Structures are given as C-alpha cells and as structure tokens.
TrEMBL record:
Name of the protein described by the UniProt record: protein-glutamate methylesterase
Catalysed conversion reaction: [protein]-L-glutamate 5-O-methyl ester + H2O = L-glutamyl-[protein] + methanol + H(+)
Residues covered by the Response regulatory domain: 9-126
Lyase recorded as keyword: no
Cytoplasm is among the record's keywords: yes
Amino acid sequence: MQHQIKKIEVLVADKSNYTRLVLEDILSSEPDIQVSAHASDGDQLISILLKQKSDVVIVDYDLPLNNQNLTLKRIFSEAPTPVILLIPKELITLALVAEVNELGVYAIIAKPGHGDYTNYRSVAAEVISKVRAVKGTLIWDVQNRLEMQQLVMQTSKPVLPKRYKIAETVFVIGASTGGTKAIESIVSNLAPDLNATILIAVHLPQSFTRTFAKRLQEITAWRVKEGRSGLMLKPSKIIVAPGNRNMIVHAVMGDPNNIRIGFSDELTGFDQPNIDLLMQSVAASKVKNVVGILLTGMGKDGALGAARIRERGGYIVAQNEETSAIFGIAKAAIDTGVTNEVLPLAEIPHFINNYKAQHLSVSEADEKV
C-alpha cells in the first residue's frame, strides 16, 4: 500500500494577483507542496489563518494593511505561523532585516521586479527550498540569514547590526504529570527582576499550552509567552513550549548574543514538547549560565538533556520524591548521577531567586583553554 505524501500547506499573501499566481505555479509544480489559500491584504490573511492552518505563509512586505509591520505582528500574536517575507531588493538593509528578524520572520527572499516572470523563475529554487526548510532544521535558516547579510552589504550602505541583550542565566524546567501545578507554585514565588530567562517544557497538548502561559502571566511580574520562532531570551522572561512541538534555541547568524527560539522536527514519540531536546540545545549555546530543573512526571525525558548541561558546566536540580505527584522524570536524572541538588518543591523558587553561578561560563572556559 502506497502512503500519500503529506503536502506542505502554503498561504500566499501579496497585493498583486500576478505575483500570487506565479508563486502558486512555482510551488504547485512540486509534489510535496501546495498553495492552500491566497490573500491580498493583511485583514484577509489573518482571517484565513484563523480559519485554517497553514504550514508556512509567504508575505509581501508591501502587503496592504501591513503598515509598521502590523500584519506580521498580528500573525505571531493571533495565529502563529512561520513567515517567509518577500522584500524588494532595493529596500533590504541590515536594519530592516534585524527588525523583521526580531518579530520572528523565518526567512527573507529578495523580491523580483513587478511583472518580471523570468526573474521569478530565477528565484524559484530559493522559494521552494525555504518553504521546505520550515519543515526541516534551523541550519538552513541560519545559512539564509548569512546570505541575506551578504546581499545587504552588496546592495546598500552598511548599517551596524543591532546588539542584542540576552539573559545571563537560562533555567530550563521540564515536567509531565502534575507539572502545571508545580510550575505555578514556582512561578508565583519568583523575584520580579532577575537577569534570567526560564524555558518551560511540559508534556501537554497544543490546545492547553497557550492557556497555561496566560495563567502563568496572571501570577507573575515576569513576561510570559508561548514559544514561537524568533523569540529572544530576554531577562525576566518565561517562554512556554507550545504543545505537540519540540522547542529548541539557536544562535541567529552565528551571533552568540542573538539566541532565539526555534523548533525541531525530530520525532520524540509522546514526549512532546521534549525536555531532552530543549536542554541539549541550550547546553550547546553560548548562554553564560545554564540550569536544568526536573520536576514531577512519568518517564525519563530530561535525563539526557541534564547530562549535556552538566557536561558544559551547568547545574541540575531535581524535585524530591515526597513532593512529586509522580516520581519519574526527576528520579531518572537522580539515578544517572547528573543532579547537583534534590529539593522539595517549595524550595525551588528560593533556589532560582538566589542562584549564583558556581561554574565557569562557556566563554570564560574557552578563553582559559
């Protein structure tokens, strides 16, 4: 029995009917891609996204009702979907790339002149590759941003890239059964201003994580967001991994000061959002201090990620058995010998509020080698 290929669903949003038809012609020629909808302005685009899911949106930078990037902001807040942005080549600058990058735009394509069918055909391979890259890893996306930076340097007056301030310490909290109540207990007792980001991965369905993030926002002064591509690791920020997706972090254009949220397509069974993948990606980053915290829950997800954090000089805390609803995830880490401390739930917020790095940061260690 032959399995049917699951096609990548693309929504094309451009004010030009000609451009929409050319892009549909290019994409529909591929067996694994189909254009599921068109939009001619920002309102129509948002309306479609709220009614039907798309894997990726190709958006014209000059789309009507996108003044001051309003449509892009609405996509990421109302109907989070990876965005590939079409920008006229003459408008591309490092400042503009940095601006849309911070909003969360996945990739950029230099848009050919209006009505130039030949030039559209010349970028066909790039369009197709970037659409497929949304379903793959972030490696291609980083390469694309490097290429776009080179394009800017060739076509416009250089603009100094924006410097990004990322948190000094990243806490990665992983949990499963009973985890939401435990995390609420921790978050409600956080000090208001810490130079830290908290990343949370709990095995939850997609329909629940946004509500959970809103609930956390009600009980803390920290900014709480459900994870989406492009979010920065800023101080006093909590990012909750969306359900049924594996959230990770990555450095944009290789810049260790510009570490952002991304997603992996690696299959991890029922353990999604996956704690191991998130911890491993943070451990591999150049964040100064990394702390893993494993709470209540079934299974052993997080033990491998905790080991990677310890290997890079990080710190691991596990919730004790007495305060765990199910002593599985924390126990697996304890049994492998990677934990630095085992604490009752009530003491974990105090630990976070008073944490002082006890090991060299990655950058400091590298300098001394």
